[in-house]
Write a structure and sequence with these properties.
This protein has a 5-stranded parallel β-sheet, with helices on both faces. By secondary structure, it is mostly helical. It has helices spanning about 10-20, 30-45, 65-75, 95-105, 115-125, 155-165, 175-185, 190-200, 205-215, 225-235, 235-250, 255-285, 290-300, 300-315, 325-345, 350-360, 370-385, 400-405, 410-430; strands spanning about 1-5, 25-30, 50-55, 85-90, 110. The chain has 2 domains: about 1-140, 3-Layer(aba) Sandwich (Rossmann fold), CATH 3.40.50; about 155-430, Hypothetical protein af1432. It has 19 helices and 5 strands.
């Protein structure tokens, strides 16, 4: 049997290879385009693959797109269904919508990370029957992105929120439009002047960008007075970080006075985590799949969503009583990862962001720890130890922190990172006020 393993995440790819190598001749690639090329080349050589394990979430071309293209090539070659390559989709969580799309595109079955040899072998044995998975077989997959793990207990408040969400009574916020437009313009290689013209339409962002460019960290000999000058000094990449920061700051609001302080603390935690993530990646000179600043900024977005929902429903008297602080933080700590993941998926951010939202507090729960997850996990704990936290917690000893060990961060590095984060936060407090 000839097998092709497709996964952009190194640890997961190696794990699947190790399982498959005893089942046949195994080849592995790390991207969707490479998968299409390998599939086409094997077909043309008369040695087609018998099985492809295909990760759904990949940066260059996701697994669903790869699957569609593979089936299209087979149809063009007039390959009958019984002779088509078997495709086992691999997903990081039971994502009903994506899996249904894969089934409709012609996958034979799916598997959820974390997986082991026994689970994979059982799936392959089931696939040997020749009958593809159908949408009717979807009963065991979560219908809502807010379903919790079996070991988690849903409080009455969380059950109420999920119930109201399913009825359409709760809307998730949209990613700020200016962030979307900025990203689109950068992706198509827009000129600096075009981007400056976009930002000039938002007075708040324009004025704060000029303030950032004139701050101690960035200022030059001459004071910046226009958006064009500010972007020239900051560069497009840094400008985008601050546009995302300023635009996202607007999300951290509530009309309920009880929650103003909580949300303010959460903003300071998220911003400091963004700086810490960026500084860690710079200190270690790491190349990452996504921007560490934005990943740090977004990691706790689920806490914001829950705080805002709690605030709104409590103000409307939907719970019949005020929520106690203990009850509030218990529910947020337990469930914010899945709410955050659902929102980031809605915003069409990469799977790296989704994984960070779910596992930044639970490194052991992840099937494999990417460099991005390790950085945000460490940054999250570091800034909490600096006082940027939502609630009280035990003192942190970084000698016991797995992410610090895996990133090979020593006490000197941690001290320098702490110093830089503190300086950036003090500076930005005035700029973003």
């Amino acid at each position: 049997m000839r097998i092709l393993v497709v996964d952009d995440e190194l640890v997961s790819r190696k794990k699947m290879q190790k399982i498959m190598v005893n089942l046949g001749e195994c080849e592995a690639v790390e991207g969707g385009r490479d998968a299409i090329n390998a599939f086409t080349k094997a077909l043309e050589a008369g040695t087609p693959f018998d099985l492809i394990t295909l990760d759904i979430a990949m940066p260059d071309m996701d697994g669903v797109e790869v699957l569609f293209e593979i089936r299209e090539i087979e149809n063009q070659e007039k390959i009958t269904q019984e002779n088509q390559v078997k495709v086992l989709m691999v997903t990081s969580h039971s994502d009903r919508d994506n899996i249904i799309t894969c089934i409709q595109a012609g996958c034979d079955d799916y598997i959820v990370k974390p997986f082991d040899r026994e689970v994979v072998i059982k799936k392959l044995e089931k696939m040997q029957s020749g009958q593809r998975l159908s949408v009717d077989d979807m009963g065991d997959i979560q219908a809502s992105p807010f379903e919790v793990k079996p070991q988690e207990e849903k409080s009455k408040i969380i059950e109420e929120i999920i119930f109201r969400f399913k009825r359409g009574e709760i809307d998730l916020p949209s990613l700020p439009q200016i962030s979307i437009k900025f990203k689109e313009m950068m992706n198509r290689g827009a000129h600096l002047q075009e981007i400056a013209d976009l930002l000039k339409h938002d007075v708040a962002i324009s004025s704060k960008l000029i303030s950032v460019a004139n701050s101690t960290y960035y200022r030059g000999m001459i004071e910046n007075k226009t958006v064009d000058q500010a972007i020239n000094r900051l560069g497009l990449s840094t400008t985008r970080k601050y546009v995302d920061t300023i635009a996202n700051r607007a999300l951290y609001t509530t009309k309920n006075k009880k929650y103003v302080e909580f949300i303010g603390r959460l903003w300071n935690h998220s911003l400091s985590c963004a700086y810490a993530s960026q500084i860690v990646s710079e200190v270690l000179t790491l190349k990452l799949s996504d921007d560490p600043f934005t990943m740090g900024l977004m990691h706790d977005i689920g806490k914001l969503i829950l705080l805002q929902i709690f605030s709104e429903l409590e103000e409307k008297g939907k719970f019949g009583k005020d929520i106690s602080e203990i009850e509030l933080f218990t529910d947020i700590d337990t469930h914010h990862g899945r709410f955050g993941a659902a929102l980031l998926k809605r915003w069409q951010l990469s799977n790296t962001y989704v994984q960070i939202a779910i596992y930044h507090d639970d490194l052991e729960g992840a099937d494999s720890a990417s460099k991005e997850l390790l950085i945000v996990h460490f940054a999250n704990l570091l800034v909490k130890s600096m006082g940027y936290k939502l609630a009280q917690q035990p003192e942190i000893d970084f000698k016991d922190i797995e992410s610090a060990r895996l990133l090979e961060l020593n006490s000197t590095m941690i001290g320098e990172i702490t110093k830089q984060v503190k300086g950036r936060m003090e500076e930005m407090r005035e700029v973003l006020a």
